[in-house]
UniProtKB/TrEMBL annotation:
Pfam families: Prolamin_like
Keywords: Signal
Protein name per UniProt: BIFUNCTIONAL INHIBITOR/LIPID-TRANSFER PROTEIN/SEED STORAGE 2S ALBUMIN SUPERFAMILY PROTEIN-RELATED
Domain of life, source organism: Eukaryota
N-terminal signal peptide: 1-28
InterPro entries linked: Prolamin-like
Domain Prolamin-like: 60-131
Length: 135
């Protein structure tokens, strides 16, 4: 089976071109603050219900994580990679749980992945929990 790779940089390009919005429905994202309570200027503002606002939110999230870290997150969640490194965890947690969840849900709702949507959400939660433990 050929490996399918998509980077956050590619996702941002699709978002900017408006192509990705045709492939995935608007997400229902819980806007409750799940952070530690400390003010963190690195966290992106929560999205509203408008598709345009969601795309802006996702772009802001993508701007907070490097392409290599985004690729490792993608591999872990969508390709069953088993390894994570400290720097990736630092970027994932630094961008915030809401950003991480929004990106994974956005990709998982796409036509290639929606069949295993629940599995990818489980992998995403596992990744975030591991990263919190590591940090």
């Amino acid at each position: 089976m050929a490996r399918f790779m998509i980077s956050l940089a590619c996702m941002v390009l699709l978002l900017q071109l408006g192509i990705a919005s045709m492939a995935s429905p608007v997400l229902a994202i819980d806007t409750a603050d799940e952070s530690t309570g400390a003010d963190n200027e690195n966290l992106a503002e929560s999205p509203g219900s408008s598709p345009d606002i969601l795309l802006i939110f996702l772009k802001n999230c993508a701007d907070m994580i490097s392409e290599p870290a985004g690729d490792r997150v993608f591999s872990y969640v969508f390709e069953d990679e088993e390894s994570l490194d400290y720097d990736t965890c630092l970027e994932v947690v630094g961008s915030g749980k809401e950003c991480h969840d929004a990106f994974v849900k956005y990709v998982a709702e796409g036509p290639k992945f929606k069949v295993n949507y629940d599995y990818y959400l489980k992998r995403s939660e596992e990744l975030y929990s591991i990263c919190l433990t590591v940090l």
